[in-house]
């Protein structure tokens, strides 16, 4: 079970079908089985990629075994035959659809052949479909190969219903922009056994697993590949703190004696300390991709292969469902790629500005992004550097970015910001505790209950700011605020050589970013005068359901920040700008609370996900302010505060 992919390449469909190649589906593979749903999904995905202007669209991989038969090179299809057969039917249809007014639809040349080993009916059916006239539906052939005729008919129907006159553009995009990864197994691979393993597991490689394999192919030494895999796997498990995902000895070596003070997370350190048992390496050159079989094995056996000491720590106290990260691993990879490119080149955008050299923070473009910015020009140093940034990024993300508590119901959760720290009991057994990332003493294991009783602190303020951004950017993609935070945290560690992140500096950066973003949403710049600013603000907040949610979220933060009390450092800064406005509003709220028997208390305020603008209107408006239906936003009390802050 240690076969290694001998070589790998990326090929466009045009090159695949015009190339001199014979592809054979072995007898031990099942017959063609794709139906309407699978075919429509494939065709729709390609169509959507074309409409979105994607320069390249990846369909996945073909696993092939190349050998020589009677002087001819033949590729046995080990995995991906359903997709390849459908593409063959698709190109047959497009070839037959060609007419005098649509010459560009036809293939310039078609040299590739597809055969089914020991199934002559299938091979004959494919030849017939490739030659036939497409003016009428496919004639019924041998019942054994009926699925091929049905697939051809479905492609014909799909084009008539969905593509129509755009077939020429569709075909050009299909030939030039749609690509496959071809992975070639070594000559001595036991193909029957290999296929049995893959078929039993029944798993398709995900995009991030393909990225992993292709990055590892750049590493020559076995020890480097093992170190890379160890780092990647530790980072891929988003349900636990990254410190819990590595063995105890590596935890201390990577993250310091207290498990939360990393000093040696550079590529030079990591690829010299990762626990790769590589006694046989001795400078061995090895330019081969890790096999898809091995990667599938890692997926299915990941949890079973964890060492006992990791389980002892993570299972007892860090159950995977206890805390929920705000992003998944594929999108986290893009966040780190963006940080890496920004730090390496300085001119790579964050996916929001539309710049020419941007890393799109959308996992639908994961392979394209990694191909463009890392893999195509990668060398060993780049791969090792990226692995180091990935591990540091996971540490910073886990310990300095909020998570949500999943213990409560959907509408009654809490935001937590804690770091993973080593503790030793009276018997000198090592375990861990989760302590506040900022503001509290290391021994203060603060809970949600005690947090709500404390005065606002830097810790609370950072939680409030981060949760404000999270409910604004609630999806997994295009999390630009998270990108800002990660870039700032990386700067502290890599440039300032900080071991501990400064709480007040982090809070200040978040506040400055929030105010900069608010002014951008409102259309304000440095040249905007007071009257112009007021007019723009009023226009922006009077857009009904199209009003940007960040405006309301920022106002909620500003209100909380001020009403929480003068001991809050940040509130004193805002007070200088809006003291009169806030003091008046605070006094009115205080009086209203006394009259209702509910004194002013903002300690329980937490940001919530809201689906519409209407949900931002207060449940208990201040007396005299009217209802949401009667009060224009430009006269709403919160808008006055907004004017005072930004004008």
Quick structural gist:
This protein is α/β, with parallel strands linked by helices and 647 residues long.
Labels describing this entry:
alpha/beta, 3 domains, 24 helices, 49% helix
Report on the architecture of this protein.
It holds the Pfam family GmrSD_N. The protein has 647 residues and is of the alpha/beta class. It folds into three domains: 7-201, no CATH class; 203-520, no CATH class; 522-647, no CATH class. The chain has helices at residues 13-18, 36-51, 81-97, 120-131, 146-163, 167-177, 191-201, 207-216, 222-236, 248-255, 267-273, 292-301, 308-317, 329-345, 366-375, 380-400, 448-453, 458-472, 480-495, 503-521, 530-541, 549-563, 569-596, 637-646; strands spanning 7-12, 22-25, 57-69, 72-79, 113-116, 178-185, 323-324, 403-405, 415-416, 418-424, 430-436. A six-stranded mixed sheet has the order 1-6-3-4-2-5, with helices on both faces. A three-stranded antiparallel sheet has the order 7-8-9, with no helix packed on it. A two-stranded antiparallel sheet has the order 10-11. A hairpin with a 5-residue loop joins β10 (418-424) and β11. α3 crosses α5, α8 (207-216) packs parallel to α15 and α21 (530-541) runs antiparallel to α24 (637-646). The relative contact order is 0.08.
């Amino acid at each position: 079970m240690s076969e290694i992919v001998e070589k790998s390449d990326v090929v466009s469909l045009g090159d695949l079908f015009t190339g001199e190649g014979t592809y054979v589906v072995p007898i031990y593979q099942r017959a063609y089985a794709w139906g309407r749903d699978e075919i429509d999904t494939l065709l729709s995905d390609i169509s959507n990629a074309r409409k979105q202007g994607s320069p390249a669209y990846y369909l996945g991989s073909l696993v092939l075994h190349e050998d020589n038969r009677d002087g001819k090179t033949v590729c046995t299809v080990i995995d991906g035959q359903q997709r390849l057969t459908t593409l063959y039917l698709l190109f047959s249809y497009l070839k037959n659809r060609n007419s005098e007014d649509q010459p560009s639809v036809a293939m310039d040349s078609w040299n590739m052949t597809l055969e089914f080993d020991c199934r002559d009916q299938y091979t004959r059916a494919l030849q017939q479909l490739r030659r036939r006239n497409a003016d009428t539906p496919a004639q019924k052939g041998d019942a054994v190969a009926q699925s091929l005729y049905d697939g051809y008919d479905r492609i014909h129907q799909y084009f008539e219903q969905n593509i129509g006159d755009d077939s020429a553009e569709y075909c050009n995009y299909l030939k030039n922009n749609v690509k496959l990864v071809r992975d070639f197994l070594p000559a001595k691979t036991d193909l029957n056994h290999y296929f049995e393993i893959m078929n039993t597991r029944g798993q398709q490689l995900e995009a991030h697993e393909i990225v992993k394999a292709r990055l590892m192919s750049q590493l020559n030494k076995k020890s480097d590949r093992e170190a890379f895999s160890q780092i990647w796997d530790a980072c891929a498990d988003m349900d636990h703190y990254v410190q819990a995902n590595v063995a105890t000895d590596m935890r201390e070596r990577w993250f310091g004696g207290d498990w939360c003070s990393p000093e040696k997370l550079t590529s030079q350190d990591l690829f010299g300390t990762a626990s790769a048992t590589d006694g046989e390496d001795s400078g061995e050159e090895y330019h081969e991709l890790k096999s898809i079989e091995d990667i599938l094995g890692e997926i299915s056996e990941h949890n079973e292969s964890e060492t006992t000491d990791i389980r002892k720590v993570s299972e007892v106290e860090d159950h995977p469902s206890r805390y929920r990260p705000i992003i998944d691993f594929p999108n986290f990879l893009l966040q780190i790629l963006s940080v890496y490119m920004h730090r390496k080149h300085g001119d790579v955008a964050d996916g929001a500005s539309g710049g020419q050299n941007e890393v799109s923070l959308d996992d639908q473009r994961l392979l394209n992004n990694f191909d463009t910015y890392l893999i195509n020009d990668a060398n060993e140093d780049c791969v090792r550097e990226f692995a180091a940034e990935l591990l540091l990024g996971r540490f910073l993300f886990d310990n300095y970015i909020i998570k949500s508590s999943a213990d409560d119901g959907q509408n009654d959760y809490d935001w937590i910001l804690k770091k993973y720290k080593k503790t030793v009991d009276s018997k000198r057994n090592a375990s861990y505790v989760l302590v506040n990332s900022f503001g509290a003493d290391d021994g203060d294991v603060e809970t949600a209950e005690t947090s709500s009783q404390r005065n606002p602190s830097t810790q609370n303020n950072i939680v409030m700011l981060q949760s404000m951004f999270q409910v604004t950017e609630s999806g997994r993609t295009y999390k630009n605020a998270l990108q800002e935070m990660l870039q700032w945290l990386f700067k502290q560690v890599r440039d300032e050589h900080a071991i501990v992140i400064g709480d007040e500096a982090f809070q200040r950066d978040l506040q400055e970013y929030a105010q900069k973003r608010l002014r951008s949403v409102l259309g304000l710049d440095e040249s905007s005068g007071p009257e112009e600013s007021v007019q723009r603000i009023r226009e922006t907040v009077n857009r009904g359901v199209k009003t940007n949610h960040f405006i309301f979220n920022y106002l909620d933060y500003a209100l909380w920040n001020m009403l929480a009390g003068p001991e809050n450092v940040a509130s004193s800064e805002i007070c200088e700008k809006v003291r009169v406005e806030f003091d008046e509003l605070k006094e009115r709220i205080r009086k209203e609370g006394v009259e209702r028997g509910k004194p002013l208390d903002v300690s329980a305020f937490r940001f919530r996900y809201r689906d519409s603008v209407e949900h931002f209107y207060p449940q208990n408006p201040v007396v005299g302010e009217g209802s949401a239906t009667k009060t224009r936003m430009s006269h709403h009390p919160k808008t006055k505060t907004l004017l005072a802050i930004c004008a």
